[in-house]
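Section: Multi-chain targets

For targets with more than one molecule, the full set of components is provided together so that the structure can be written out for the assembly as a whole rather than chain by chain. Components appear in the order listed by the source. The example entry contains four components.
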Amino acid sequence: MQKPFQINRAYKEVQQITVAVDCLIFGFNEGKLELLLVRRGFEPERDRFSLIGGFVHNEEGLDEAAHRVLSELTGLEDVYMEQVRTFGKANRDPYERVLSVTYSALVLKENYNDELVNSYKAEWFPIDNLPELIFDHKDMIESAMRRLRRRIKTGPVGFNLLPEKFTLPQLQKLYEAILGEEIDKRNFRKKLHAMDFLIRLEEKDKSESKKGAFLYRFDEDKYNGVKNFSI
Amino acid sequence: MQKPFQINRAYKEVQQITVAVDCLIFGFNEGKLELLLVRRGFEPERDRFSLIGGFVHNEEGLDEAAHRVLSELTGLEDVYMEQVRTFGKANRDPYERVLSVTYSALVLKENYNDELVNSYKAEWFPIDNLPELIFDHKDMIESAMRRLRRRIKTGPVGFNLLPEKFTLPQLQKLYEAILGEEIDKRNFRKKLHAMDFLIRLEEKDKSESKKGAFLYRFDEDKYNGVKNFSI
DNA sequence: TTCAATAGTGTGAAATATACACTTATGAAT
DNA sequence: ATTCATAAGTGTATATTTCACACTATTGAA
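Its structure, encoded as tokens over all components, is:
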């Protein structure tokens, strides 16, 4: 019989593993959900695309590491991120063992530091037209997409992908892009109106139509009074 | 400006971290949802309770590690497990840095190897009356419970906690124990009947009542024809 | 024969989700 | 100035789902 596992717990000579965070950086632009990828500039797998990632340092937590990696690439500091899941097959990276904890980030394209993004050879791709990716990064994206679809239906996370002021047609296009299906305009607005956490401003965005669409703002306080968010 | 992160990717001298899996082993017994915990037999934190865990070996994947840890403790081999989430605050274990990937396991108490469980000083606790736990294990349990509540409403995972043949009153008690709320008997049965993936056997369990309750069996094939599982 | 205890069953009301079409405002073109 | 094209905005009826609710059936034990 093996030793009780608790004793192993105290072993100092236990195997250690390289741990990375890989970030799924989502943006929304011109009605499309996009993902930020980098092209590998070195062998192996040179020129293939991958998620933005980096290693976890010894003194930093996972969330910190994810924020650091994102901020190093985009210059963004206060970004909405959540952990998605951890990929840990022994040979997922065939060159060396790396455990990867994935994080999903929702960023506002207008806030990026373009220069920084360019310097890292990062590119945005529409979610429905991604290039081939290294390792298990495709699985990571699927996993993150499933989660994102669930999250936007049950909570107000989608607003992180829109500017402070946005129109209802914009918001609906965002939901359609993420869910991958068309939504009825009247039903969509009916739900939003019922929850009553958006504030209509006396301002219109005329960039998409001659009539112009009213701009709205997400109101945190009013949202806190909402019991069952559902779209 | 820092170096492009991709170059870091190729570094071999990157920090490595000790990685553990911690298993949330759920069982269902006498109408109660229970969790299997072990009492630490060594300092520090001697005599406090913790989840069952173990370190990830270099040549094994996370899922494998979780199954191995579970099987070493309980002798069970084919157990339903899913990854929950990864806890990675730098100081979550104040004695040494350990990253922990949590797994939720649904086991059938009658299948355990009692001797093995006893030899490890493991104990079952009802989920609503847990002892104090080390480190962030309480957070892990909350996280796993949230997930379990969601999963049993949207999929047939609960059956893993019941024997092959079970009664509807048993099944309902299981749902009530996990969800922490009472369910209307008629509405509960109505949903199950509508989905039509349970097979009623010509056999009754009279251990709970004089009248006896019919035994049912979960039918995998019939379940595959169900589009929207919902309880 | 009665009693106690759990198993089993159906209906109506309320809430939620879905389907669906026309009017409004405005800038651009004539 | 009138017309036209384009997207914004609005309400109602139906179907579906969820929820609330109470009595009968079966049986072993007393």
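Residues 1-10 of chain B have pLDDT under 50 and may be disordered.
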